[in-house]
User: Fold this.
Amino acid sequence: MAEHTPFLKAMHALGFVKAVGFKELIGSDDVLGMLGLENEGKYSFQQFPVENDLGVNAAKKALIMEKIHSSLDQCGWLERVKNAQMYD
Assistant:
């Protein structure tokens, strides 16, 4: 079983999770819709800036990062991710 399968199952216990293939994602003309985000703009993968940041303000970005970290911590993955981190 791939490493990402138990990770996705753990994340699903905390909220909505929609797994998509990378080739599907880069080939889509509606990446945000493919990820389950409704009422957002329609963007292809190539339209995203290199940083993958669509101008989200600092407060919203901090909130998003906190939600990611708390979700990873709640299901026991945060330490694993930190231990496997290769770059800052």
